[in-house]
């Protein structure tokens, strides 16, 4: 009997055994199980590595982040953006009890951040700073990149609608004007004063010559010298002019208080260079030594203008009479004081080219070598003619002798 050919029955392929609908159910089911296992393993790992307490901290930080958002641009330093609510909280809603002072650019408030850091918040006055947000942030980024131990640190900023605020580190001993103009009773001995003079000179040298940007401060004065807890000086408000459109600050009455520090060529013609800062530094040095304002119309007329008075004493070889009487009682190093006064006179030279650069000034103040040229009579602004008027070009009466006219051989000898 012929055998029946063997029929090989191959099993139907898996996909043919099941209907398409039951296949997709199976895929979803298996996929779900695999996903669940992966999640479980991840959760276990996460739980073992990060403790619940840490987790809480992370959540808190994430919530706080918008208050202090770091951002980065190019190779410049990271800056912090503070939100307005944070600064409001830190300053107790800009409470008047936290008002540190009010300058030409707006009020400054003391504040305390949630992490305990003390800050000084400068609210830029709206009518003056017309900058848009991108320009403002670009300027902040520039200034934040300028750092030196004798410059106040800009911690960050806030831009909220039209508001522009700058956040600085808070300096415990506030500004030098409060001490030297007798607004508080603190007495500075000679070595602290000398340390302040040298520190300011180093800060200025950095701004003018060593920083990545060339910065002319434009407003060197006692209220812009802040003092840390060890009375080390830090120059404040550098770069502030960058936030304001080119103005005629040198002619503005807002800056009248600063006029006694202004170099004549800047005050009269608006000629601005590092030498204008150097002139202001010279005025500041004499203020620190004598502990008085550069202009005081309550004093006898020959004493009203400090650079003029200092020069008169110098001509009579009595320049040490300039010294703050309390410092005289406490004791001082005569050689150092004379050296500082001599440097100040060089800074006050009428011709900007004759004023030494800050690097020379630092060397003169810190070395014992006698490397000084003889100063000529300082130039200064004289407001005697129109006391009731705000100072302007018309009221500046002091002639500015040409350096060619000045005969340094006829100068009195520097007292020893
Ligand atoms: N970082 C700071 N730490 C502590 N006190 C500060 C700080 N910055 C400013 N101050 C205080 O706030 C006061 C006001 O400062 P502000 O710079 O507004 O005014 P100013 O220096 O008198 O004038 P200007 O606007 O011409 O600089 C200062 O005199 C100083 O006492
Ligand atoms: Mg200031």
Automatic annotation (TrEMBL):
PROSITE patterns: PROTEIN_KINASE_DOM (PS50011), PROTEIN_KINASE_ST (PS00108). The chain crosses the membrane at residues 25-50. One of its GO terms (molecular function) is ATP binding. The keyword Membrane applies. Residues 382-416 are annotated as: Disordered. Signal peptide: none annotated. This is Serine/threonine protein kinase.
């Amino acid at each position: 009997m012929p055998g029946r050919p063997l029929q090989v029955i191959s099993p139907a392929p898996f996909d043919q055994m099941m209907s398409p609908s039951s296949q997709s159910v199976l895929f979803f089911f298996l996929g779900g199980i695999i996903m669940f296992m992966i999640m479980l393993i991840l959760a276990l790992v996460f739980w073992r590595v990060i403790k619940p307490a840490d987790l809480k901290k992370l959540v808190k930080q994430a919530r706080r982040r918008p208050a202090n958002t770091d951002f980065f641009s190019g190779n410049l330093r990271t800056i912090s953006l503070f939100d307005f609510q944070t600064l409001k909280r830190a300053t107790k809603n800009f409470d008047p009890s936290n008002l540190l002072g009010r300058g030409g650019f707006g009020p400054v408030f003391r504040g305390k951040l949630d992490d305990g850091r003390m800050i000084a918040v400068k609210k830029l006055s709206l009518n003056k700073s017309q900058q848009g947000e991108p320009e403002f942030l670009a300027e902040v980024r520039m200034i934040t990149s300028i750092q030196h131990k004798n410059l106040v640190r800009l911690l960050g900023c806030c831009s909220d609608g039209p508001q522009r605020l700058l956040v600085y580190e808070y300096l415990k001993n506030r500004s030098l004007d409060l001490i030297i103009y007798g607004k508080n009773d603190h007495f500075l001995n000679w070595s602290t004063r000398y340390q302040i003079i040298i520190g300011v000179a180093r800060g200025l040298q950095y701004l003018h010559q060593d920083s990545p940007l060339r910065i002319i401060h434009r407003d060197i004065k006692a209220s812009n010298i802040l003092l840390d807890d060890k009375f080390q000086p830090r120059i404040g408000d550098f770069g502030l002019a960058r936030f304001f459109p080119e103005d005629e600050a040198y002619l503005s009455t807002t800056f009248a208080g600063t006029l006694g520090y202004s170099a004549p060529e800047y005050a009269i013609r608006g000629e601005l260079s590092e030498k204008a800062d150097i002139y202001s530094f010279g005025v500041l040095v004499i203020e620190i030594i004598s502990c008085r304002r550069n202009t005081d119309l309550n004093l006898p007329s020959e004493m009203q203008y400090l650079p003029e008075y200092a020069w008169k004493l110098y001509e009579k070889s009595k320049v040490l009479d300039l010294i703050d009487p309390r410092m005289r009682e406490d004791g001082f190093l005569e050689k150092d004081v004379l050296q500082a006064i001599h440097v100040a006179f060089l800074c006050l030279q009428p011709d900007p080219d004759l004023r030494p650069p800050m690097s020379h000034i630092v060397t003169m103040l810190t070395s014992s070598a006698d490397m000084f040229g003889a100063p000529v009579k300082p130039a200064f602004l004289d407001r005697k003619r129109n006391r009731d008027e705000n100072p302007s070009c018309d009221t500046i009466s002091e002639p500015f002798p040409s350096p060619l006219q000045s005969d340094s051989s006829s100068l009195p000898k520097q007292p020893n």
